[in-house]
Design brief:
With 332 residues, the protein is mainly α. The protein has 2 domains: 14-57 and 211-285, no CATH class; 71-199. 48% of the residues lie in helices and 0% in strands. The chain has helices at residues 14-34, 44-48, 60-69, 77-90, 93-103, 113-125, 147-160, 163-167, 173-181, 188-198, 216-225, 233-250, 265-282. α4 runs antiparallel to α7 (147-160), α5 crosses α6 and α9 crosses α10. The longest helix has 21 residues, at 14-34. It starts with 13 loop residues before the first helix and ends in a 50-residue tail after the last helix. The model is unreliable at 328-332 (pLDDT under 50).
């Protein structure tokens, strides 16, 4: 198998070939679903397991945040900061919908945190999962009776300390990250993820190309692609982002960008995490995190994807036609 690397690239394994194949095919799957295709891939791994989209903002939870959570508040930095982080702490659409049903649209000054906690407690007592399994947020020690109680108290304390006022003064993604990194129980990975989410708003539209933090899944994927890599994983993610056009072209891959928007470092970071999962089945001999299987299987819902919505600062015109090729025959 032939690999294409600039001279600065470290020695790679075949998993790195899958990185570019995965990115291209996962993006085609997304556009095929938007176009209403029934068969979106013939790859048995991609078709049988749950993976995120090539672009983070295209994912179901991010789309709900952009389309339903952020714009529903009254163009108010305090409320948008509160609503965005309340949604993302639990990272579960159903939890947000539960709160809206019971309390109305959440607003910091109008929705007492004690009512939020009681609504979540009733859900937990009824056996309803209120957290997503996408990532684990440690519980701060704030005197609460449960993890959810402490998380709601944490968010309330962030507003009382007027972090939202410091947020709107930030001028870069790194500055937003550094602000959130100082919050108890928000490690580097979650602080970065939340900084990206806040960047979807109109208050502090950030340049996603300027900064990235590698999460544990991405680090595992990088280890499978480059076993001898001994530099910061963020350096490699930036290199992948910069070289993406050459990498796709070298493989003869017609990558379908997001209506002209190239993959950003956050997307390339996520793709390393996803190819780590993909390689557990496709290339089980490569070590990374040590996990041997993909946890979540996928069953098509048959429901069409709603028309996508992206941050206004991106200037994406989703009405522009996309030429979507049918699912090709997979050769394993």
């Amino acid at each position: 198998m032939q690999f294409y690397f600039p001279s600065c690239w470290p020695t790679a394994t075949e998993v790195f070939e899958s990185y570019w194949y995965f990115a291209a095919e996962r993006q085609r799957m997304y556009f095929r679903r938007l176009a209403g295709h029934v068969a979106v891939t013939s790859d048995p791994i991609l078709g049988g397991h749950r993976f995120t989209n090539a672009y983070r903002a295209s994912d179901r939870v991010s789309q709900y945040l952009i389309a339903r959570v952020i714009p529903a508040s009254d163009a108010n930095a305090e409320d948008i900061f509160f609503r965005t982080l309340l949604f993302k702490i639990f990272n579960k659409i159903e939890t947000w919908q539960l709160l809206v049903r019971e309390l109305g649209e959440p607003h910091w000054r109008e929705t007492p945190v004690c009512k939020i906690f009681r609504a979540l407690s009733r859900a937990r007592e009824a056996g309803i999962a209120i957290y997503s399994g996408a990532y684990i947020m440690p519980s701060p020690s704030l005197g609460g009776t449960s993890k959810a109680d402490n998380h709601v108290r944490l968010l309330d304390s962030m507003l009382r300390l007027e972090l939202h006022k410091r947020w709107v003064e930030c001028r870069s993604l790194r500055e937003v990250y550094e602000l959130l990194r100082g919050v108890p129980s928000l490690g580097s990975f979650l602080a970065f993820q939340f900084a990206i989410d806040l960047g979807y708003t109109d208050f502090v539209p950030v340049n996603e190309a300027s900064f990235v933090v590698a999460g544990p899944g991405a680090r595992s994927g990088i280890a499978k692609c480059f076993p001898a890599f001994d530099r910061r994983p963020e350096d490699l993610i930036m290199l992948v982002t910069q070289e993406q056009d050459e990498q796709f072209a070298a493989r003869g891959s017609n990558f379908l960008s997001l209506w002209g928007r190239r993959l950003q470092p956050i997307d390339c970071q996520n793709l390393f995490c996803e190819v780590d999962k993909y390689a557990r089945v496709a290339y089980p001999g490569h070590s990374g995190s040590g996990r041997k299987r993909i946890k979540q299987s996928y069953r098509p819902s048959g429901k069409p994807i709603p028309p996508p919505v992206f941050p206004r600062s991106w200037g994406i015109d989703t009405t522009s036609p996309i030429s979507v090729v049918p699912a090709f025959s997979f050769v394993g």
